[in-house]
Hints:
alpha+beta
Amino acid sequence: MAPSSSAKKVAKLAQKGKGKKVRFQGGTVFPLVVTIVTLLGLALIVYARESRPGAGVGAPTANDHWHAAFGMYICDAKGLQTLPKITGTLEETDATGQPISTKFVRTGIHSHGDGILHWHPAASGAATGTNAKLGVFFDNYDIKVTNTKLVLPKTQGGQTFEEGKTKCMVDGKDKPASLKLWVWDSYATAATADPQIYTTNLGDVRIKNDGMVFMLAFVPDDVKPKAPDWTAELPTLGASDGGSAATTTTVPGATTVPGETTVPGATTVPGATTVPATTVPGSSTVAVTTTTGG
Length: 294
């Protein structure tokens, strides 16, 4: 029996299709785009995982107890002025005794209203080594810092200082001000040495050693850098927080008189008699010690 006309047509179509590639409707562009998007998505996932900050490597470690002077020097419609010290210790607890600030628990970074960064990194590594950046302190106190703007939370005054918008008056003249960060590696040289000046990525500036000085400034570029007024007090303020406490030497057998004030670093001599000092209003009380019996 001769094949039907329908069968012949099918055979011819099959013969024509031999050796031809199957194409998606609309060509090869769509599957190519899908493939590229998929690969990019996978690459972003890998990058995000690799770039997550882990435990910072190097000093300061969780065992270090560093301090740095910190201040803010700004220019507004009232002129040049140093802003009040950052307030709040972040060590407050709730009714159950649990810390209120989860950021402080995670990092250990705070201040005591004394103009000092108390850099006591927590074991999480969020503020140790390569993670010891000024931005940790800013974030803990909700201070927003960009390359052109400083925004303080209501707890710290609530002001905003922005380049091109904030009015800056110096000697009766309106001058453009810009945001910058002045950094000294040591408080001991802050009064005489020139600081490093940062104008971008201020939150990424590292805390590299104990005793540094930071001044966040929103001022005209021709204003001479200055360290916070309390910079020279850094050793004393740090010691009072337990960082490098002053020592007192007590000799065995010495008698301590109730109400007597011990001077750090002083030596109590056996057999010495402490004579109560007379306190003059506005003066310091000094204990006078006389030695008897050799």
